[in-house]
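Our preliminary data section would be incomplete without showing what the modeling component actually yields. Below, a chain of 220 amino acids is followed by its predicted structure, encoded as tokens that our downstream tools consume directly.
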Amino acid sequence: MLKTPIIIINCKTYRGCVGKKAVEFAKVCDKVAKETKASIAVAVSAPDIFSVSRAVKIPVLAQHIDDSEFGSNTGNILAEVVKENGAVGTLLNHSEKRIPKKAIEGAVKRAKECGLAVVICAKDDDEGKELAGFKPDFIAVEPPELIGGDISVSTAQPELIKGSVRKIGKNVLVGAGVKTTEDVKVAVKLGSVGILVASGVTKAKDPEKALKELVKGLSN
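Predicted structure:
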């Protein structure tokens, strides 16, 4: 269900994107996807997967799963459960939720067993190349120092995008500081198949307008 080129919006736990507001925000994204015919997905907090997935047509992802199976675990997020609640995939190893490589490998295995798509986040192209060995559906390369900032990876480190595509191959997403049509346009021109974005949309005064601006960059 994750068709490219794609924009994946990570809702994180921003006040305007959790609980009832997660549904409201996802509906805005769903509206933009319907109007523009763009491939858009949202990654929401585990407690919001059920309500969001039933309110929208666009793909919904978990922000994280563990490498656990059914059993004596407390607080763990199971692949089976996020799928049952409506998720079609998951992020792993986001800069704000880094996990050991062994746990990444195990979580990818669990996700694949349950038919979930996997987006592994990497801090740079070298780590992305290494993590690509676990065979996720996408590698999202995001320099931690640019996440949530005013300067995008497309502007600050275009060579990182080129390097990521060269080293990892197809299905590279990029993110960090992406906010404009030009940011997306540059990323796609340099070979990425989409972007992973958060504050550029979630914290925008007008999320619908901000998302539409990003969508314009997918086809230029």
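The mean pLDDT is 92. Strands lie at 6-10, 39-44, 60-62, 89-92, 117-122, 138-141, 172-175, 194-197. Preliminary results of this kind motivate Aim 1 of the renewal.
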